[in-house]
Amino acid sequence: MTKTYKSVPVRSYEITPKETFLSRRDFIKAAGVVAGSVALAACAPKAGETTDSAMPDVTHTAGTDELGNPTNSFDQITNYNNFYEFSTNKEAVASLARDFNPTPWTVEVTGMVNNPKTYGIEDLLSMFTQEERIYRLRCVEAWSMVIPWNGFPLASLLNEVEPTSDAKYVRFESVYRPEEMKGQSSPFYPWPYQEGLRIDEAMNDLAILATGLYGEMMPNQDGAPIRLVVPWKYGFKSIKSIVKIELTDQMPSTLWSTVAPNEYGFYANVNPNVDHPRWSQASERRIGELSRRETLMFNGYGDQVAYLYEGMDLKENY
Ligand code: MTE
């Protein structure tokens, strides 16, 4: 992200219809293979591991977001990724992440809470109803997609652990596995990837912990097995492959605000009126489209989130 944004031509995967993928899914289902092994070979359970709770049924219903924007194809969403633990090359992440093994997986929820607990991914899949949320994802680099996520509100998990009245922020940490994630050998980044939200932002219903997309388990390259999605903020806030969530009274430091504090702030709310120091944020390129679109304030979610920032300077929101 510290590189200057360069637009890329339309690739073949940008026009591959999702039906191609879905017909493969139907075939595998018909063949009696457990759903949990569908998305990627790397998600396949090992001998002896249970798959019963691995893939709750979430039906992919609508083909558009609430503004009528069509969803990007499964191929687009899984072949153009920012996941620096694997590579800074968006089109190389999918293949480099193929052998990453997200099973078994635990998420530790700790810090200023009454009920600290470590949850297995299977607990999180069974405790909370997994719903579909079709959200726009706007990267700070000025490209965007529309993604049908599956997941559950972050607030549902936070309510389980009961934050104390001292808790003001939520800090998230990604997995650190340099042997499986070659990008983590890079000394330029302070691994593991970290992010944070103010607690009232975290409690907003739009903030979800996503466990899949298109009704399938989360593909490795999109942050298997569980990631944050905060659609009114630039994509770098939506931290992938989470292993730890900590409630704290201190504003957490984040990977990007540590690397380039003048370019990536803590709030990082999508704002077409506040440019990145090196490029405009007024418009964006939707992956799969040729002409640019205007970027919407709060990525179009102002009705749900603007109240969180009343009285704050717009620059502070960046
Ligand atoms: N999370 C981790 N752990 N590592 C990353 O490099 N990249 C972020 C975010 N979450 C990133 C991450 C950025 S910059 C973006 S735009 C989104 O993930 C991209 O999500 P996607 O690849 O699923 O579209």
Please explain how this structure is put together.
The chain has 318 residues and is α+β, with helices and mostly antiparallel strands. Helix content is 16%, strand content 20%. It has eight helices and twelve strands. The longest helix has 13 residues. The radius of gyration is 19 Å and the shape is globular. Bound molecules: ligand MTE. The site of ligand MTE has 17 residues, from loops.
Bound molecules: ligand MTE
Provide the number of structural domains.
Answer: 1
CATH hierarchy: architecture: Alpha-Beta Complex
The number of helices is 8
Bulk shape = globular
* Element order: H for helix, E for strand: HHHEEHEEHEEHEEEEHEEH
Oligomeric state of shown chains: single chain
Proportion of β residues? 15-25%
Distance, first to last CA: 15 Å
CATH fold title = Sulfite Oxidase, Chain A, domain 2
| Alpha-beta classification | alpha+beta
Name of the level-1 CATH class: Alpha Beta
- The percent of residues in helical segments reads 10-25%
* Unreliable spans: 2-53
Q: What's the CATH H-level homologous superfamily?
A: Oxidoreductase, molybdopterin-binding domain
What's the mean pLDDT score? Answer: 86
Annotation, overall tally of beta strands: 12
Most strands sheet: 7 strands, mixed
